[in-house]
Design brief:
With about 750 residues, the protein is α+β, with helices and mostly antiparallel strands. It has five domains: about 5-105, Phosphorylase Kinase, domain 1; about 115-325, Transferase(Phosphotransferase) domain 1 (Transferase(Phosphotransferase), domain 1, Orthogonal Bundle); about 365-455, Phosphorylase Kinase, domain 1 (2-Layer Sandwich); about 460-665, Transferase(Phosphotransferase) domain 1 (Transferase(Phosphotransferase), domain 1, Orthogonal Bundle), CATH 1.10.510.10; about 685-750, no CATH class. The strands form nine sheets. Strands 1-5-6-4-3-2-11 form a seven-stranded mixed β-sheet, with helices on both faces. The protein is elongated.
């Protein structure tokens, strides 16, 4: 049945044939927990099998009885990979066709597929990693077209990102030869296929319309992969206009419209030199030429890509490439092996080790500590060296044997904090600012891992600020803390190659040294974007809600103004000495976001500002005239405006802090907006006995009534509001009982 196929091969030799029992043993009888992928052929399992000398970790692909593929594709791959050996082709270790089973056994590719790293992993590939992958895949495809050991040449016919696997050090290997065809050496067009096969988005239009398959069909598909790697977009994107679903069409139209720089994946936009970009795009466009004869050969493609890579490496020697290598929104993901859509999640330990190995390769100053060193430095992580016990991840101060002071965070493998760890490491290893914590190194030991910072920590801001017995924070220290954090955020927003948004600015994440100089820490929730990008949308958010801007909580809109809002809340906390939730004033009532927003420190300051009683809420531990604090509270209020466009930039905040004065015009506008917001507030009913909040009526309160309620709220800690609808008079009667010690004062107003 397959004689015609085999006859085209020189001295066909098959790789090792495994028995079905050997395969069962290797996969623990096809244990579902070992499934690492699923494609058109069937499930892919991770297994361990003997090659006669050693135990090998392998990927085992088992044909599904319901698969559209079958014996033809199976034997095509067995024979193709049995006779082809190249560094950039995936190796077939063996096969099994025992008991009507069709099973392929490959070398295990620890880094998974290119498709995963481009579209699913949130650890973005750097530009140099992408170029290395391009060159490797191109060399593999060039080998198929020109240098195989068989008398004819091979057309892969299904080149795509999911069929490019990645091994250690990001070596690319071409896989999945089930659709491959043999073609004569000296003939461009082989034969006419009655059935065109391949993957839409990568399919050569000429092959699709004429049925004529040539090696240039692979060149076209590889051109799509090149744009996929450069742009970070899928080959087919149905989320845009139908006319531009195909990446090939969208890319060419965008370039023609003069949007060359805009097509580059935002994760590498700051890393790609313009000259390299033009060379790369020119080559990719040539691969997509309408006429196959005008497309380059894969030998020419290899040469062109090697030229781009050599130029980029030369430029790296002249500037700091590491600045933008991993400085993007990264959540730690397990590295995958996949056949198509379903991915295998490897062990957390391997992911962390692989990640930090990559990081250290780009940043030679990043140190790998052993656990014994950290135990000695922190005195076995003693409670006496523990900083900020209320944090979600333990932080310890310590000292290395050479006297260097450090701070160490401790984590457990498998925890959700593992993702934040990689994100923080990738960002901090490229930042340098006096008010930003500096990453010194890491340690992975058993099921524990640690991040080590080059910093002599005295305390976190929350530990000092909310300790009623602490007198260390005079106004001079508080002012310098506010200014230091503001300068750190300005640096992140405007002075780094890409824009870093911290997303979790709060007292707990501000560490202080012995002189109480602040350093912004905890970048686990941070996000990055291009400097000129105004905002973006997030599908999921994490952080501390009371410091989160309304647009982030309600709509997932992320911009630098999110950090401005958080800083505003921090300013109010530092000056008043109260926590943002003011739970001590609210009898620890559990509230939802909306209720808390209007019953928090923010509301407390707004009301007192409108009434001119700001001096009454200044922390008594501040050792200056409280009237001078008004300007700084107004700066804080300016930062927490409900609408992001009304908030200042961090550059403006720093300027206002230095001048100790917000712009008069902005203060006037802010007053009008706060009055409008307060007038649209909802009246709630507070039950002092049960400490539960429930909405009893939605009432638009008159301005005069709001003034009374605000005044009463500032005077009394506990009050209840009873309301009843009076049908005869067609109005609501609202009775307020304000309790102050033994005095009970009823007020009744009609609205």
């Amino acid at each position: 049945m397959y004689t015609a196929f085999f006859s085209s091969l020189e001295s066909p030799r098959l790789c090792h044939q495994f028995t079905f029992s050997e395969i069962q043993s290797a996969t623990q009888n096809f244990d579902e927990s070992l499934v690492i992928g699923h494609g058109g052929f069937g499930n892919v399992y991770k297994g361990t099998i003997s090659n006669g000398e050693n135990l090998l970790t392998v990927a085992v692909k088992r044909l599904d009885s319901n698969s559209n593929q079958g014996a033809l594709e199976f034997w095509a791959e067995v024979n193709m990979l049995s006779n082809l050996r190249h560094r950039h082709l995936v190796s077939l270790i063996g096969y099994c066709n025992d008991k009507q089973e069709m099973i392929l056994v490959y070398e295990y590719m620890s880094y998974g597929t290119l498709e995963y790293h481009l579209h699913n992993s949130q650890v973005p590939l750097s530009w140099m990693q992408r170029l290395k992958i391009c060159v490797g895949a191109a060399r593999g495809l060039d080998y198929l077209h020109t240098d195989t050991c068989i008398k004819d040449r091979v057309v892969h016919r299904d080149i795509k990102s999911s069929n490019i696997l990645l091994h250690d050090s990001w070596d690319a290997k071409i896989s999945d030869f089930g659709l491959s065809k043999i073609c004569p050496k000296n003939q461009q067009s082989t034969y006419v296929n009655t059935i065109v096969k391949g993957t839409f988005g990568y399919l050569d239009p000429n092959y699709f319309y004429t049925g004529k398959l040539t090696r240039k069909s692979d060149v076209y598909a590889f051109g799509v992969v090149l744009f996929e790697i450069l742009c970070g977009k899928r080959a087919v994107d149905r989320g845009i206009d139908e006319e531009q679903w195909a990446l090939a069409i969208w890319a060419k139209d965008s370039i023609k419209a003069g949007r060359l720089k805009q097509i580059v994946d935002i994760n590498i936009r700051g890393s790609v030199s313009l000259k390299c970009l033009k060379m790369f795009v020119k080559l990719a466009k040539q691969c997509l030429h309408t006429y196959p004869k005008e497309r380059p050969t894969m030998t020419e493609v290899v040469g062109g890509l090697e030229g781009v890579m050599a130029l980029q490496e030369k430029l790296i020697n002249n500037r700091l490439q590491a600045t933008t290598l991993n400085l993007f929104a990264i959540k730690a993901r397990k590295f995958m092996y996949t056949s198509n859509d379903k991915n295998y999640e490897g062990s957390s330990l391997n992911s962390l080790e692989m990640y930090f190995d990559t990081l250290r390769g780009e940043n030679q100053t990043l140190q790998c500590f052993d656990l014994d060193t950290l135990i000695a430095a922190t005195e076995n992580f003693s409670e006496a060296n523990k900083i900020s016990p209320h944090t979600s991840k333990p932080l310890y101060k310590g000292k290395l044997h050479d006297g260097q002071s450090i701070a160490v965070t401790s984590h457990s493998l498998g925890s959700r904090l593992e993702e934040a760890c990689m994100n923080e490491a990738s960002i901090l290893e490229n930042l340098e600012h006096e008010n930003v914590s500096k990453l010194l190194g890491y340690c992975i030991e058993g099921r524990k891992w640690f991040l080590v910072y080059d910093f002599a920590v005295y305390a976190s801001l929350d530990c000092l600020m909310f300790d009623p017995e602490c007198t260390l924070l005079n106004w001079d220290k508080r002012y310098k803390i506010i200014l230091g954090v503001a300068r750190a955020l300005h640096y992140l927003h405007r002075e780094t190659p890409v824009q870093v948004i911290h997303c979790d600015v709060k007292p707990e994440n501000i560490l202080l040294d012995g002189s109480l100089k602040p350093k912004l820490s905890s970048f686990g929730n941070a996000r990055c974007q291009a400097i000129n990008e105004t905002d973006c949308c997030m599908s999921s958010i994490s952080g501390t809600w009371v410091y989160m801007a309304p647009e982030l909580v309600e709509r997932g809109h992320l911009s630098t103004k999110v950090d401005v809002y958080s800083l505003g809340v921090l300013v109010l906390e530092i000056i008043t000495g109260h926590k943002a939730t003011m739970n001590e004033r609210m009898n620890d009532i559990s509230l939802d976001y909306k209720s808390c927003y209007y019953n928090s420190l923010l509301e407390y300051v707004e009301i007192n500002w409108l009434e001119g009683t700001l001096t009454d809420i200044i922390d008594p531990r501040i050792d200056v005239d409280s009237s001078s604090m008004t300007a700084f509270l107004e700066i804080g209020l300016f930062c927490i405006q409900e609408y992001s466009e009304a908030r200042p930039t961090m550059a403006e905040v720093v300027s206002m802090l230095l001048d100790s004065l917000p712009p008069a015009l902005q203060v006037a506008k802010m007053r009008q907006m706060i009055i409008k917001k307060r007038s649209n507030s909802t009246i709630h009913r507070f039950d002092n006995h049960n400490h539960k909040l429930m909405v009893t009526t939605m009432v638009m309160v008159l301005t005069t009534t709001i003034t009374i309620l605000m005044h009463l709220k500032s005077l009394y800690q506990n009050y209840t509001i009873d309301s009843a609808y009076l049908k005869d008079f067609k109005l609501y009667q609202v009775t307020i009982y304000c309790v102050n010690h033994t005095t009970k004062l009823p007020w009744t107003v009609a609205v």
